[in-house]
Amino acid sequence: MNEETTTPNRRDFLKSAAALAGITVAPGILLYSVSQAKPADQAVTSEQRWGMLIDVTQCTSGCDECVKACAVEHGITEATRPEIAAHWIRKVGLRDKQTGQEYSLPVLCQHCEYPPCADVCPTGASFKRTDGIVLVDKHICIGCRYCMMACPYKARSFIHETLENQKPHSPRGKGTVESCNFCVHRVDNGENPACVAACQQAGHEAMIFGDLNDPYSQIAEKLKTIKSTALRADMRLNPGVRYQGL
Amino acid sequence: MKIRYLLNTLGQLGIGILFSLVVQADEPVTSQHVPIPDPPEAKQHFSAEQACVEPVDIIRRNHGQFLKHQRDQTMHNGVRTQQHSLVECINCHVTPDDKGNYPSIHEGTQHFCRSCHAYAAVTIDCFQCHASKPEQATASQ
């Protein structure tokens, strides 16, 4: 038994081999996503838990690259009235009344371990995938909007108007509730969500996405060493999105 | 005697009706009376032996079940195989006309899905949310 626990197993060896390959391909750039892509015919498992770390100190107040990238990726167009516009990710400004210090940070679905939206959903449309991504199955969503009331992060939007020209990978339609899905179609292909890619491209590197359960992933390594906080940690929802420097 | 006569007449009538149906089926599809489905050609065959992802008689009858099963597998388990994926159906079956325009899902019978569903008077709501055109078309329009 002891031998089994101390000997590195085949999976860990392959992972570290993949990481090494990443280093040799391009020094300084680690291709973490390479080792995470799963075959298309395999179901997701609870071995992974996808999460995001947002470094508030790197996030600048005027920048909304992540919000724009999200709109492009999911075909989110402007609504006829701003009150009914869909927001999957929004930039929020905070100001400490005592010190006057200001923060700017993106807030999106926090992909809770214990999602209140899924708790209250009367049809089972809101659910958490085994790999931790919280989704709305719009095939069975009846548009009652209980989940919108239950979510403490105001992460969900209801679609009031008929939509056209949706993206093939992101079906959206009138009468259903929707929220950030961590770009699940990209994650299943081993890519980063669009907001994370846009943030990296803009040179801010304020967002990291990865597997919280994999001790060798970039996000897990960083969470081990820095102090991070969950929004409304008092609710004990254990969100998958965590913030650094807040 | 009377019954035999009756059956005989009915038989002749039946053959007559069948014959007229055959004649109508041979008429061009633009006939205003019978809008017989004329789905557009797909871009490619699934394999050398098989035209579609399942044998044609099976896919015609059961494509709804295949799509529904795949939908749940993808939504809940992240299975993203292409064989029964709606996106791949659209990519292969929805083709542009000579001018490069894609057929509308809302009107006419040129859209692959509509060509039969309009004929069978079946209302499908897939495309209230899902894209009815391949991605390149969505991007350019």
Q: Work out the count of structural domains of chain B.
A: 1
CATH class division of chain A: Alpha Beta
> How many DSSP-defined strands of chain B?
0
- Cα(first) to Cα(last) distance of chain B is 71 Å
Which series of helices and strands of chain B comes N to C?
A: HHHHH
Strand content of chain A: 15-25%
Strand order, main sheet of chain A: write it out: 8-1-10-9
Q: What is the succession of H and E elements of chain A? A: HHEHEEHEEHEEHHEHEE
- The total tally of domains of chain A equals 1
Largest sheet of chain B: none
Rounded average pLDDT of chain A: 89
- Percent of residues in helices of chain B: 40-55%
Q: Give me the secondary-structure category of chain B.
A: mainly alpha
Sheet with the most strands of chain A?
4 strands, mixed
Uncertain regions spanning at least 5 consecutive residues of chain A: 1-6, 17-29
Which overall shape of chain B is indicated by the principal axes computed on the Cα atoms? globular
Percentage of residues in DSSP E strands of chain B: under 5%
- What Rg of chain A do the Cα atoms give? 19 Å
| Number of DSSP helical runs of chain B | 5
Radius of gyration of chain B (Å): 20 Å
